[in-house]
Amino acid sequence: MSSLPACPSCQSDYTYADQGLFICPSCGHEWSAEAAANSDDSRQIKDSAGTLLQDGDTVTVIKDLKVKGSSLVVKIGTKVKNIRLVDGDHDIDCKIDGFGAMKLKSEFVRKV
User: Fold this and answer.
1) The Protein YjdM C-terminal domain covers which part of the protein (predicted)?
2) For the chain, what is the mean pLDDT?
3) What is the model's pTM?
4) Cα-flanking dihedrals φ and ψ of residue 22, to 5°?
5) Which of 21, 72, 82, 83 could disulfide-pair with 67, CB 3.0 to 4.6 Å?
6) Is the pLDDT of residue 42 over 70?
7) 3-state secondary structure at position 32
């Protein structure tokens, strides 16, 4: 097993090092050793104030949010408990009392 990192572009294991760069012969992607060391597999999601969010956190809504397809509005200051972080445009999956399951953008919440 090679100790070199897999290609971040195509995930190929056949990478090799050349003068401080890692090169993938499968797709031709090149990246630096510093980029490989700084790469983090988990995406960091931050709230509106820049605080890192984690699964299970409690957040408050900082802006009135219209619910698409409904006349309901999630009011400012609504507490949302036990959030789950997901990939995508709306990166928070949660249940809001009175509304049910919903996806929110992290830019509209603040960690409590």
Assistant:
1) 45-112
2) 87
3) 0.62
4) -100, 140
5) 72
6) no
7) strand
Residue 84: pLDDT above 50?
A: yes
Report the distance separating Cα 67 and Cα 80, nearest Å: 15
Residue pair 80/58 in contact (Cβ under 8 Å)? The answer is yes
What is the rounded (10 degree) CA torsion for 101, 54, 78, 68? -40
d(CA 57, CA 93): 11
Find how far residue 79's CA is from the centre of its chain. Answer: 21
pLDDT at position 1 is 47
Percentage above 70 pLDDT, the chain: 89
Partners of 61 in the β-ladder: 109
Nearest-angstrom CA–CA distance, 73 and 90: 17
Residue closest to 31 by CA, chosen among 53, 46, 1, 10: 10
Structure tokens at 4: 């070199």
What is each CA distance from 74 to 48, 86, 87, 100, 106, in whole angstroms?
Answer: 17, 20, 22, 11, 15
